[in-house]
């Protein structure tokens, strides 16, 4: 054996011994570490498949509700690997300086680094690693191998001397098989940079909307700094200050190792981050070109998945589970209903104007969402100045979230006052002589509905609304002063609580604060001043249609894993939240606004009387107008389906859509229902009993 081979063997042996010492000296007897033996310190003769022949994770497929129509797929490889030659040299230099300055000098294990770590770790309270880029790549590749179990993936990253020595042996073997540049390229393509960006191509786009070959010195240094703690240092969702500190560290290391001049490093440190985040991090943009409208449903599905603890403890972990797990997901999306909803939404507003008509279709008793439509293109194409959501958007205009708080839904919120009063023991025939203006006890800060500092709503149509009304008539004609009085009788806090119970989410901070701290004095809530979404509203009315059974809105019908085992996360989540008689009474009153008639023949006019006759089946619903007709809302339901649509300008709340738009909303909702129910039997609502219709009782909270 010649001297070169002896030196190489000695290096290998020393690396193994020192690695074991560095990691185990504090916890294991030295004899045990040295007792690993020469055999356990030599390189492996064979590499695992994850290192020898990297294999992509199994993709997850999202299907429509027929279980066959593919909506899209989610998979890890979507990150787009790039050859190392297409990565800017400054990025290659930055990652080497940040993570392994001696990368081109060692053979996979840096003996000098191991000695340094051993010396530092002997000091109390100190922990210093000695992983090379090659060792980090080995760890990442093993941890991400879809052929391994979760336990095996966890073992690949566990903090033990055995794992570290195994990593070293694999690293030594790998460097004998492939070149340094190939290893560096693999590392750059597998590393996680935070904010959902896997690999340098995705990271370049995610943070700076550029490509790896165009990264500047400052950009490269920031990205290189992220790999140490991507979740913590991520400047988009985490700590921009930490990202700046890490960038400075990397630039200093680049200067110290001679990869850049001190002047260039100083100049780069003086520049701001200048982030230019990309807004297309998911695979919903990959829905079939002819079904762009599916993108909004798909986007909501990813929001739903990211909120499910069954798939991981963090959003990043849940996304990794989705993209490598081989899941088969049958969604609740009905392509036929979706197509009709998209068609009808465009009869309310075309895509060529800034106003929108987000619409949701929900199935009572399951919470399954059959369609989500809006007159927008799903994508990040160019928009006019100041128009974030027109004509292109990936924002969730239908379901809310991601900065979309929703829209005022006006008198549709009277349902919650109606339910609260019924639950408190008041019957449907509760009468009140409704005046044109009613001065309440609720304080208010100025405005046209203020009378001496008290909230005093007025009826929109004196001739048609004023006078002696009961719940049927007041709900049908949408009598503001009746419901202001009713709210006083039952308590505004109970009305707010009822809305929350039926799934109304307060996404706007001021609404959440009022609901939490000022519900008892929030009288105007009854008239729909809180922001909501078509999905929340449709699901609230679906709860009434389902006789008080509330179901969490869901985009899925079933989920099975790669072995075909069905998982519980795909099941419906339903519970009884209303007394059955209370729900039946509310459904009965809801027939009045839409031109239907109750069992007791008490409907005497409604704001959308043309809706039921055209549908030719039992129907409930409500219309709503916010102040100055800034938004207009129509919601309608049968025992089998609920639809809600809200006309608004998502980019400019000052742009009042006007009351005339309801003339288009009402028939659009009717046509969606007629199409979706065309093959379903006609079902009637169960009429309420005489007690809830005509008798004052104790609170009706049982079932």
Gist?
The protein is of the alpha+beta class and 703 residues long. It is 40% helix and 10% strand.
Average pLDDT taken over every residue? 88
Alpha carbon gyration radius? 32 Å
How many structural domains does the protein architecture include?
A: 3
> What is the third-level CATH name, the topology of the largest domain?
Beta-lactamase
Strand order of the largest sheet: 5-4-19-18-17
The outline comes out as elongated
In DSSP terms (H or I, runs of 4 or more residues), the helix count works out at: 28
Q: Sketch the major β-sheet.
A: 5 strands, antiparallel
Domain Penicillin-binding protein transpeptidase: 361-649
Protein name: Transglycosylase domain-containing protein
EC number: 2.4.-.-
Keywords: Carboxypeptidase, Glycosyltransferase, Hydrolase, Multifunctional enzyme, Protease, Transferase
Topology of helices and strands:
Blueprint: H1 3-24, H2 30-34, H3 49-52, E1 60-63, E2 70-74, H4 89-99, H5 111-121, H6 133-143, H7 150-155, H8 161-177, H9 180-190, H10 200-208, H11 217-226, H12 230-233, H13 240-256, H14 262-269, H15 294-306, H16 315-324, E3 328-331, H17 335-348, E4 359-362, E5 369-373, E6 377-378, E7 392-393, E8 407-408, H18 414-423, E9 432-434, E10 450-451, E11 454-455, H19 462-465, E12 467-469, H20 471-477, H21 480-490, H22 492-501, H23 509-517, E13 531-532, H24 534-545, E14 549-551, E15 556-560, E16 574-576, H25 580-589, H26 611-615, E17 620-625, E18 632-637, E19 642-647, H27 662-676, H28 690-694
Parallel strand pairs: 1-3, 6-7
Antiparallel strand pairs: 1-2, 3-15, 4-5, 4-19, 8-13, 9-12, 10-11, 14-16, 17-18, 18-19
């Amino acid at each position: 054996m010649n001297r070169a081979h002896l030196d190489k063997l000695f290096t290998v042996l020393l690396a193994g011994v020192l690695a074991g010492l560095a990691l185990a000296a504090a916890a294991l007897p030295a004899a045990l570490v040295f007792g690993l033996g020469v055999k356990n310190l030599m390189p492996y003769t064979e590499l695992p498949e994850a290192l020898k022949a990297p294999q992509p994770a199994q993709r997850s497929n999202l299907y429509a509700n027929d279980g066959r129509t593919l909506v899209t797929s989610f998979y890890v490889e979507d990150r787009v690997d790039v050859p190392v030659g297409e990565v800017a040299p400054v990025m290659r230099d930055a990652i080497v300086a940040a993570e392994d300055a001696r990368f081109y000098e060692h053979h996979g294990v840096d003996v000098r680094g191991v000695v340094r770590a051993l010396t530092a770790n002997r000091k109390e309270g100190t922990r210093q690693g000695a992983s090379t880029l090659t060792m980090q790549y080995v760890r990442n590749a093993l941890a991400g191998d879809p052929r391994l179990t979760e336990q095996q993936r966890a073992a690949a990253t566990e903090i033990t001397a055995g794992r570290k020595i195994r990593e070293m042996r694999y690293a030594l073997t790998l460097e004998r098989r492939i070149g340094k540049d190939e290893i560096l390229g693999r590392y750059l393509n597998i590393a996680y940079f935070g904010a959902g960006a896997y690999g340098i191509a995705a990271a370049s786009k995610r943070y700076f909307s550029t490509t790896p070959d165009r990264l500047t010195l400052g950009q490269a240094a920031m990205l290189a700094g992220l790999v140490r703690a991507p979740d913590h240092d991520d400047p988009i969702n985490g700590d921009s200050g930490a990202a700046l500190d890490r960038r400075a560290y990397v630039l200093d290391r680049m200067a110290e190792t001679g990869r850049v001049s001190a002047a260039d490093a100083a100049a780069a440190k003086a520049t701001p981050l200048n982030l230019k985040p990309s807004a297309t991090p998911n695979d919903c943009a990959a829905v079939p070109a002819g079904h762009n409208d599916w993108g909004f449903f798909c986007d909501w599905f990813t929001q739903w998945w990211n909120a499910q603890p069954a798939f991981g403890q963090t959003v990043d972990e849940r996304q990794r589970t989705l993209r490598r797990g081989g899941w088969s997901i049958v969604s609740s999306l009905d392509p036929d209903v979706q197509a009709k909803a998209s068609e009808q939404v465009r009869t309310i507003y075309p895509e060529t104007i800034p106003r929108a008509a987000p619409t949701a279709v929900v199935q009572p008793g399951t919470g399954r969402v059959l369609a989500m439509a809006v007159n927008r293109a799903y994508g990040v194409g160019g928009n006019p100045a100041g128009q974030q959501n027109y004509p292109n958007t990936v924002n969730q205009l239908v379901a809310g979230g991601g900065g979309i708080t929703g829209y005022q839904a006006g008198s549709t919120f009277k349902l919650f006052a109606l339910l609260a009063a019924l639950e408190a023991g008041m019957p449907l025939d509760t009468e009140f002589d409704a005046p044109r203006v009613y001065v309440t006890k609720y304080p208010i800060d100025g405005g046209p509905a203020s009378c001496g500092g008290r909230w005093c709503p007025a009826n929109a149509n004196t001739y048609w609304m004023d006078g002696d009304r009961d719940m049927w008539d007041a709900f049908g004609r949408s009598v503001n002063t009746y419901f202001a009085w009713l709210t006083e009788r039952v308590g505004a806090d109970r009305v707010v609580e009822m809305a929350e119970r039926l799934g109304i989410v307060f996404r706007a901070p001021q609404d959440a604060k009022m609901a939490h701290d000022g519900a008892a004095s929030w009288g105007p809530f009854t008239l729909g001043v809180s922001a909501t979404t078509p999905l929340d509203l449709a699901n609230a009315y679906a709860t009434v249609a389902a006789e008080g059974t509330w179901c969490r809105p869901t985009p899925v019908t079933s989920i099975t894993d790669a072995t075909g085992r069905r998982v519980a996360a795909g099941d419906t989540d339903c519970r009884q939240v209303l007394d059955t008689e209370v729900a039946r009474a509310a459904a009965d009153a809801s027939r009045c606004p839409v031109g239907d008639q109750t069992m007791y023949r008490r409907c005497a006019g409604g704001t959308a009387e043309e809706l039921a006759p055209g549908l030719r089946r039992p129907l409930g619903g409500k219309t709503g107008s916010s102040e100055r007709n800034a938004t207009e809302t129509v919601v309608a339901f049968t025992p089998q389906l609920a639809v809600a649509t809200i006309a608004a300008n998502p980019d400019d709340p000052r742009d009042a859509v006007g009351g005339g738009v309801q003339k288009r909303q009402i028939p659009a909702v009717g046509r969606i229902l007629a199409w979706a129910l065309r093959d379903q039997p006609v079902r009637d609502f169960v009429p309420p009993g005489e007690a809830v219709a005509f008798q004052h009782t104790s609170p009706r909270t049982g079932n």
